Amino acid sequence: MSAVQNLIEKKHLQFDLIHAHFTWPSTYIATRLKEQYHIPVAATIHEDSGWLKEEIQDANQSLVDSWRNADALIRVNRQEIPLLKQYNDAVFFVPNGFSPLFKPMDTRTCRLQLQVSLEKPVLFSVGDLIPRKGFSYLIDALTIVRRQYPNIICYIGGHGPEEKNLRRQIRDNHLEDRVILLGSIPEDILPLWMNCADLYALPSLQESFGIVQIEALACGKPVIAARNAGSREIVVSDDIGVLCDPHDSDSLACALVQGLSRKWDHQKILAYSEKYSWEMVVKSILPIYIRIIRNNRTHDPP
Q: What would you report as the CA-atom Rg of the chain, rounded to the nearest whole angstrom?
């Protein structure tokens, strides 16, 4: 709190609105600043579904006060808006957007650059190597998928505490030549990996949104995802992907096989992805800004 105040004073910052991201500590600090500067606060609650429910169950007064004292709460999926409406009537849905780095590229060129086989079907996934991301289910699913697609290869980007367990699982399932852990992927290389894949896989057990899904769609790639709050928000049609049951390798394997066997309309996927461009996100968020600034001015003391 004091660090933010010192920065405001040192830089002589003037502002009409504070937009915080995540509840703790950002929204808490923002609502404290609101009291001092009489400036309205919008807060985007990005927490994944499990994290948000834990915060609600804990009922920490600082968190609850943050939600209640914000002038607008923004959730990146519609499904969980009722959870936040318990604390604040002004709750809005605004999705995340994707970087313009993510766009269609020639698959062959990307595979050559990344030294990926031109003939094999390729799956790609990326995220922190933690249990919530569900990579263990993806690896188990590959043991089933390879029965129909023996040449399939899956690349997983990211690092985290589950890496040793995942490597052991890959060895135990004799998938060393089929599942490759890439480690951290530089941001400028990530679009190449998206574009070299036939399918993007998101086996996450919980997601508030899952930006990687719209990044894949922006490259014209279909998404195979477990049914979590974020994926249900994004994968709304069989034209853009397939949803499967979470915690279920068999269901995920069936979805992957379905995705590999289909002929996808990549132009339709690209057209759908445009709703998540930053231009469209800004069009959704500006009316919220205008509303709370006007409300704040209406209630300013004379």
A: 22
